[in-house]
Design brief:
Structural class: alpha/beta
Strand order of the largest sheet: 2-1-3-4-5
Order of helices and strands: EHEHEHEHEHEEEHEHHEEE
Largest sheet: 5 strands, parallel
Shape: elongated
Distance between the termini: 15 Å
């Protein structure tokens, strides 16, 4: 199914940042800098769009007016971007037919998570999970069950280590409880004295050349678990 997103935002730096980030995650992205350009692009591509992102504040109109036009023509999902902390903006957008909103400032990762959630609900991303996950020069292949570095050299990982790394790259930025990680890799919860997961994480850090004393990829969150902090992109082929 189509994964084409149309974004209207009057800030050029923001537009280009979002375009680069979303294309890295296998989305096709169209851009508009004002309402008139957006409407022209929307009517031209309405049948192929999977989502539109509307900035509330624009030089020639506002996101609410555009939301009305979009909803009158199509049921394509809408995410509103608002710089206001006022609840009124969010309520108005949702009442006009927006599916979600996000307040500025926001991170591209947060916006991507919202996009993925909407696409899952609408069935756009329900077909097949990604085959490849890429992060800081490494590529994880879920089909071949391999991990290669930037030089194409395969890492020597056990089956459990591969399962753990795969779960990390599928949930970047999430704080993952030790019991969840044990359940995902071993099919059982970890007892209070079970340190096998910690040993496994240390081994995985070593394979990824992630400094055990000051890790940058797999970070320990004291009293909570672990978080995979690298930017991760995914692809189906």
């Amino acid at each position: 199914m189509s994964r084409k997103i149309l974004i209207v935002d009057d800030d050029q730096k923001t537009r280009m940042l979002l375009k680069a980030y979303l294309e890295k995650n296998q989305y096709e992205v169209g851009l508009a800098h004002d309402g008139a350009t957006f409407l022209a692009e929307f009517h031209r591509h309405v049948d192929s769009l999977s989502l539109v992102i509307l900035d509330v504040m624009l030089p020639d109109t506002d996101g609410f007016a555009l939301c009305k036009v979009v909803r009158a023509r199509s049921n394509v999902p809408i995410i509103m971007l608002t710089a206001s902390s006022d609840e009124t903006d969010r309520v108005v957008g949702l009442e006009l037919g927006a599916d979600d909103y996000i307040a500025k400032p926001y991170s591209p990762r947060e916006l991507l998570a919202r996009i993925k959630a909407i696409h899952r609900r609408t069935g756009i991303d329900a077909a097949a999970p990604p085959r490849y996950y890429r992060f800081v020069g490494f590529t994880l292949d879920t089909l071949e069950r391999t991990v290669t570095d930037a030089d194409g050299e395969a890492l020597q990982l056990t089956g459990l280590d591969f399962q753990l790394l795969r779960y990390f790259v599928e949930h970047p930025g999430d704080i993952l409880d030790r019991s969840v990680l044990c359940e995902q890799t071993r099919g059982r919860d970890a007892g209070p004295l079970d340190r096998s997961l910690d040993v496994q994480v240390s081994r995985l850090r070593l394979r990824l050349k992630d400094d055990g004393k000051q890790p940058m990829l797999i970070k320990t969150v004291r009293g909570a678990g672990y978080v995979f902090s690298a930017d991760v992109s995914s692809a189906h082929a």
